[in-house]
Amino acid sequence: MSNRTEDTVNGRVDRSPGNDMKGDVWISFKRWLVKNLRNPYVVFTSLVQPVIFLVLFAEVFGVVAGDTLTQSFQGEVNYITFLTPAILIMSALASAATSGIGLVTDMEEGMFEKILVSPMNRTAMFLGKMLSEVVRIVIQTLIILLLGYMLLTVRTSGSVDQYMQTGLVGVIGVVLVTVIFGGVFMAYSNIVALVSRDEEATIMFANLLTFPLLFVSSAFLPLDVLPGWIRAVAVLNPITYGIDGVRALMLGRDVMTVLTVTGYGGLWNTLVPAVGILVGFNIVLGTIARRLLRRAARAEVQ
């Protein structure tokens, strides 16, 4: 625990001994990681559900997307390679958008108040929780990348170079983009949790976002073949930038369709603006979530 507790008896101020910031983050991280691993629903939705979606979407949309991909990519991209970034971002979104549920559960069970009266650093409490969810997103991402390659190999005998044209550096980049993207919706989910303080409302808002936002993005089909109003909404949709960033790394080319950027060259024309916009969302929503957490902490302690 950090040195933040003060004993004001007889006007004397004594600070209790405890952990530093890193120690508090580590304690919070371990607590949430163990809690997630012991929850079979979390394990299922994190690891099994993305596999099911990848196989089903590849079979269903792959049948009708061939001509569209030929029109947009001159037949150089298989639909499994095109779809995998969407499944990666969808899985990160599903994990991140339910981040606030654990916080609400803590509030309802009284655990939130117990932590607040302890000397644990408030920011460390939040960071530890976020890091445990980052671990889940990283594991999901690596599993889906591997499964996508296996599916491509079975169906088309495609090589790893065709699947991930930027190699190992691209794999690391894909993981980083999914983590940055996940941060946006972790912050959003915790904002909803801190405002509503209700588990059902947090789940409802998570589900409300997941599928509608996916379909108004470049997830399943190239944006240039979709209606104009979808392309207009996609400009404001962070999912578009997450998917385009991952897709640019996998295909090794500029795939950005909602913005025109030419100053960086090749895939960087997509990657730089996509990451920049996602970082901006993280800063704005993360700042709001942190302020709400501090306000909730003051209210509970009083």
UniProtKB/TrEMBL annotation:
GO terms for cellular component: ATP-binding cassette (ABC) transporter complex. InterPro entries: ABC2_TM, ABC2_TM_bact-type, ABC_2_transport, Nod_factor_ABC_transporter. It is a multi-pass membrane protein. Residues 41-296 form the ABC transmembrane type-2 domain. It is found in: Membrane. The chain crosses the membrane at residues 41-65, 77-104, 134-152, 164-189, 201-221, 266-288. Keywords: Membrane, Transmembrane, Transmembrane helix. The keyword Transmembrane helix applies. GO terms for molecular function: ABC-type transporter activity. Its main location: membrane. This is ABC transporter permease. PROSITE patterns: ABC_TM2. It comes from the Archaea.
